[in-house]
Amino acid sequence: MITNTSGEQVVDAWALAASDSRRFTSAPHTWMSTGRLGLRLGDDLLDNTRRPMLRLVEDTSPGDHDLLIPSCDLARYRQLGVEGYHDNCRDNYFEALAAAAIDALPFLPQPINLFMRVPIGRDGSLSIHPPRAAPGDRVRLRALDDVVVVLSACPQDLAPTNGIGRAPTGVDVAVVDTESRP
Amino acid sequence: MITNTSGEQVVDAWALAASDSRRFTSAPHTWMSTGRLGLRLGDDLLDNTRRPMLRLVEDTSPGDHDLLIPSCDLARYRQLGVEGYHDNCRDNYFEALAAAAIDALPFLPQPINLFMRVPIGRDGSLSIHPPRAAPGDRVRLRALDDVVVVLSACPQDLAPTNGIGRAPTGVDVAVVDTESRP
Question: Domain named DUF1989: which ranges (chains A, B) (predicted)?
Answer without folding.
Answer: 2-148
